[in-house]
């Protein structure tokens, strides 16, 4: 198999989501961990004066439409942890839930990443600040600007999944080599 054919075989489309009830970042990237291209991104906003169910429906519809438009191979979403402010965590959890529902209906596998994991994958340290992450997302995708920090986080999640996927492939190849050696 030629090098170009191998690279094309490894190319995938990943959608990343930074869930939130007021502001939800969503972004699509295509390629592989060495060569990712920005396809699209959006900020889905809801108004706090809207009924809760209407806000969740707006998020669900926006996420599902985005997923249908980009037909991703996988969804990378920010993992949800205990929030010190219970009400905020609960509301973000609701947005998270409708995102997973939209993905499940379209049979798109999802993967969760913590903010620390994203920082480690993109910047090289889990202690990176927001500006460092935004800088790396812009640099990796060759973007002049981003619509919001939420969109930057969503694209960062997608890039993290691409990187993670590449590491898993290397790990699997290493295990196969070890098995072959042990059979000799």
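-> sequence recovered:
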């Amino acid at each position: 198999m030629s090098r170009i054919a191998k690279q094309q075989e490894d190319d995938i489309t990943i959608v990343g989501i930074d869930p939130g009830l007021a502001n939800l970042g969503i972004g699509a990237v295509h390629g592989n961990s060495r060569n990712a291209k920005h396809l699209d991104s959006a900020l889905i906003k809801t108004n706090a004066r809207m009924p809760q169910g209407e806000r969740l429906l707006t998020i669900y519809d926006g996420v599902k439409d985005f997923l249908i438009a980009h037909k991703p191979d996988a969804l990378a979403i920010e993992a949800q942890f205990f929030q010190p402010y219970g009400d905020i965590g609960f509301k973000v959890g609701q947005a998270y839930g409708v995102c997973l529902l939209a993905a499940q209906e379209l049979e798109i596998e999802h993967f969760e990443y913590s903010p620390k994991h994203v920082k480690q994958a993109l910047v090289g340290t889990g202690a990176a600040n927001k500006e460092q992450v935004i800088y790396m997302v812009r640099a990796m995708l060759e973007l002049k600007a981003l619509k919001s920090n939420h969109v930057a986080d969503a694209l960062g999640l997608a890039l993290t999944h691409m990187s993670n996927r590449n590491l898993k492939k290397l790990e699997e190849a290493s295990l196969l080599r070890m098995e072959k050696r042990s059979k000799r």
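The chain has one domain: 3-183.
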